[in-house]
C-alpha cells in the first residue's frame, strides 16, 4: 500500500463528518484545520432542526472547547474567516433517510463534492432506549451508506464502530466482520428488519395502553437489553453497533468501506497538546474517586487488560486509513482494531499503582483545603465477593430499616423506598458493566499493524500521523499526562460526562463499585453521554 503524503492527499478534498459534536469528531476537525488548512471543505453534520440550531451547537459544543486553543494561537484573528470558508454546518439526523438534511441544494452539493465520509455518529449508552439505539447505530449506519452511494466522487467511507462488538468472547479477537444474521451465541433468527418491527409493535402497544413517557423509556431500555441477550450480546450499545456493521457490509456494493474499531479511548497523547479529554470518561471516574478518598473498593480482575488508546492515535489511524483506501479502493471490507492490548498491554493493577503514586505525590485538595490521604483499596475480584459486600453494607441494613419502618407505622417509608430504589439501580448498573469488569480478551491488530508498516515505509509525515501504541510509556502517560489532565478538567468545572463504550466501552470500564456507592450514599446520578 503506497500512501505518500497525507497532507497532499487532504488538500482540496471535501469531507463529511457525522456526529460532529462528539469527542473524536472534534479532534479530527481540529487536526485537519491545523495541519491542512487547504482542505476544500469540512461538512459537519450535527443533530439539529435548522441552521440556526446547528450554529448554536457548533459554537457552544465545538469551537469553544480548549481543544482548539492551539488552532486559535496559530491563526489568531484569521481563524473565523478560515472556519467560515472551510466549514459547512449540516443540520440533520442520521436516523432519517438522506440523513435528515432538509436543504435540497446542500444535499446536491454534497453528492457532487464529497471525497470522503467519516461516520462518527452514535449513541454510546449501554442501556439506551432500543428504538433510539436501533435508529442511530444500526439504521443510521445504513442511511450513511445509502447517502454515500449517491456521492459521485466518493473515494472512501469510514465507519467508526467499537472493538466491543465482540461481546463477551475471550481469547484473541480477530479483525473479522459479522455476516448478516450472525449471532454470538449461535442462536438463529436474527433479522434486523424484524428487530425494527419488534420495536414498532412494542411502542404501539405502549401508546395504546396510555403509558407515560417515563414508562415507555424504561420499557424501551429493557427491550434493548432483552433483545441483545437473546442473540448473545451483553447490552444494547454493542448489539446495535454490531448490527450496523452487518447492514453496511451486506449492502456496500462497490463502495470502498473501512470499519475502525477503537477500544477504550482516553485523553490525547501528543496533539494538539497532551492530556485533552472532554469531561470525565468512565475509566477516569475510578482515578478521581480514588484521589478524592471516595473509592473504598474496586470490582474487577486486577490482572485483566485494560485496552486503552489515546484519542489522537485513533484520529491518526482514521486519517491514514482514509488515504490508503482512497488511493487504492477495494471492494473488500477492511476492519482495523485500534487499541493497545496486542502490542503494549496495560492492566488494572498498573492503573491502580499509577493512581497511588500520583495522589501520594500530588494529593487531591478537598473543599476544606486539606490534602486527601490515599491508601490501598479492597479488591472484589469476583461477582460473589461483590454480592457479599453489598449484602453486608447495604442489603442487610435495608432489611433492618424495613423492620423499623414496620414497627414505626411506615414512618421511615420514604427513606426505605429511596434506599431500595438506589440499591436496585446499583445492581442494574453492575449487571451492565459486569462483562467488562472481568474482560479476558486481546484484540488482534494485524490489519492495523500492516497499515502502520505502510505508513512507516511510505508516508511523508510519519511524525505527524503516529498511531503505534508500542511507543507509549504507560507510566509516564498516566502519571504525567492523563491523571493530571483529569484534575484540570475538574478545576475548570467542566460538565461531568460518563461515556460508555466505542468506546466509551469506547470511554472505558469504570470503578463500578465507586459509582454504585455514590448512588447509594448520595443519590448522585451522572449523565451518560452520547456522540451526536
TrEMBL record:
Q: Which reaction does it catalyse?
A: a long-chain fatty acyl-CoA + 2 NADPH + 2 H(+) = a long-chain primary fatty alcohol + 2 NADP(+) + CoA
CDD domains per record? FAR-N_SDR_e, FAR_C
Q: Which keywords label this protein?
A: Lipid biosynthesis, Lipid metabolism, NADP, Oxidoreductase
The lineage's top-level taxon is Eukaryota
Query: Is NADP found in the keyword set?
Result: yes
Q: Which residues form the Thioester reductase (TE) domain?
A: 17-318
Q: What is its EC number?
A: 1.2.1.84
Select a single GO molecular function from the record's annotations and give it. Answer: alcohol-forming very long-chain fatty acyl-CoA reductase activity
User: What name has this protein been given in UniProt?
Assistant: Fatty acyl-CoA reductase
Q: Which organism is it from?
A: Acer negundo (Box elder)
